[in-house]
């Protein structure tokens, strides 16, 4: 059987996907190898909050943001190309919220809820306590890295995969499927009852969020989810 010839667009998409994958997992493996040391540094309150936040943000951005930024800059692709527009933004946000309801219920029923805290990371309280202007600049960085880029990263990766490997079925999206699985694998996994429920509801949330993005053509739902749900509850 003759090997299928890829079009120029398919080759470009494959290159983009490989760049994003290598950057993402390269940074993640570095974090996995030095995670304890990095965590100890970030949590060391005797050190100024600025270098701790910058290190934490650099690692986070490396995992969820650097790869897509490199690709978008090199390809001269605007973020609006991936759904950051006003059209259908409200529909995308409402649809995304509905997809996260099972995950939110799981958090409440399993006793994991400790209060609603948008943009809550390891050192959010230290950043806020640093005072003006560091607190303002620090929170802006947290919103950008843990909110905007973490959510938008899924939208870009999903679309790249979906365009390279399109599905003929309306509700099957290989990009959304791969992103949902990767999201689960990059976070701690428990085999307890509530751990299994959390895996299932997380899959529903991420896959559903990306299907909403596909159906509406709008990625603001993804950004909203990571600003006000994923990193808040």
Question: What would you note in describing this structure?
Answer:
- By secondary structure, the protein is mostly helical.
- 71% of the residues lie in helices and 0% in strands.
- The chain has nine helices and no strands.
- Helix 4 packs antiparallel against helix 8, helix 7 packs antiparallel against helix 8 and helix 8 packs antiparallel against helix 9.
- The termini are far apart.
- The model has no long low-confidence stretch (mean pLDDT 94).
N-C termini distance = 52 Å
Task: Give the C-alpha Rg.
Answer: 18 Å
SSE arrangement, N to C: HHHHHHHHH
The fraction of residues assigned to DSSP E strands is: under 5%
Helix share bin: over 70%
What is the number of helical segments per DSSP (H or I, 4+ residues)? 9
Strand count, sense and closure of the main sheet?
none
Number of strands: 0
Task: List key phrases describing it.
mainly alpha, 233 residues, 9 helices
Give the structure's gist in a few sentences.
With 233 residues, the chain is an all-alpha fold.
List the helices and strands and how they pair.
Blueprint: H1 8-43, H2 49-63, H3 66-75, H4 89-109, H5 124-129, H6 134-164, H7 174-185, H8 193-216, H9 220-230
Helix pairs in contact: 1-2, 1-3, 1-6, 2-6, 4-8, 4-9, 6-7, 6-9, 7-8, 8-9
């Amino acid at each position: 059987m003759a090997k299928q010839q890829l079009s120029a667009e398919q080759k470009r998409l494959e290159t983009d996907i490989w760049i994003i994958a290598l950057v993402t997992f390269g940074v993640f493996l570095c974090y996995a190898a030095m995670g304890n040391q990095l965590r100890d540094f970030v949590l060391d309150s005797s050190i100024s909050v600025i270098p701790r936040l910058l290190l934490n943000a650099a690692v986070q951005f490396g995992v969820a943001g650097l790869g897509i930024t490199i690709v978008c800059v090199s390809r001269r692709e605007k973020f609006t190309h991936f759904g950051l527009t006003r059209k259908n933004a409200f529909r995308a946000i409402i649809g995304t919220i509905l997809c996260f309801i099972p995950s939110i219920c799981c958090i409440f029923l399993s006793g994991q809820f400790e209060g609603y805290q948008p943009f809550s990371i390891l050192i959010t309280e230290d950043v806020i306590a640093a005072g003006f202007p560091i607190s303002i600049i620090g929170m802006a960085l947290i919103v950008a890295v843990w909110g905007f880029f973490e959510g938008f990263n899924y939208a870009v990766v999903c679309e790249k995969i979906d365009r390279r490997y399109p599905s003929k079925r309306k509700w099957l999206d290989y990009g959304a499927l791969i992103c949902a699985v990767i999201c689960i694998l990059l976070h701690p996994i428990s085999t307890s009852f509530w751990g299994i429920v959390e895996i299932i509801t997380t899959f529903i949330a991420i896959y559903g969020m990306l299907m909403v993005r596909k159906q509406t053509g709008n990625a603001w739902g993804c950004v909203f989810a990571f600003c006000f749900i994923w990193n808040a509850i």
